[in-house]
Amino acid sequence: MEQVGLEGLVPLLERLKRENASVKGVVLADKSGLPVADSFREEMDLMALSAMSTLILRSARTVFSNLGLRGGGTVILEGEDSIILVKQLDSELSLTLVADEDANVGLLNLEIEKLSKNIIAMLMEL
Predict the structure, then answer these.
(1) What are the structural domain ranges in the chain?
(2) Are 16 and 26 in contact (CB under 8 A)?
(3) What's the Rg (C-alpha) of the chain?
(4) Residue 23 above 80 pLDDT?
(5) What is the longest distance spanned by two Cα atoms in the chain?
(6) CATH number of the domain at 6-125, out of 3.30.70.1130, 3.30.470.30, 3.30.450.30, 3.30.930.10?
(7) pLDDT tens-digit profile of 73-93?
(8) Residue 42 φ then ψ, to 5°
(9) Residue 89 to residue 94: CA distance in whole angstroms
(10) What is the pTM of this model?
């Protein structure tokens, strides 16, 4: 993935975090599981999060395939202290959002969908 011009993505990621108090941060990763841009300001292992997100999406595709179903491209994980949403943008990129455990999952799903469309539109202009 070409890195030139991608600095414009950070404000998009930061806006989502700023407008949603429960969001801890968002990371955009390439198909190799490497972080491209992020909005995390607190301690987060971005390499691990990006790599795991790629594996989460791959595992979800395998589950759907083995069941003879079509996957939707979004995986939601709910933990004791956080919620993680992983969204496949295209064949090259994924978006991972980490939020507090009491976040509104439905609202976050809508927000990550909107952010995904904005990122794809921005990348098409590069």
Answers:
(1) 6-125
(2) yes
(3) 14
(4) yes
(5) 40
(6) 3.30.450.30
(7) 899 999 999 999 999 998 889
(8) -100, 170
(9) 5
(10) 0.89
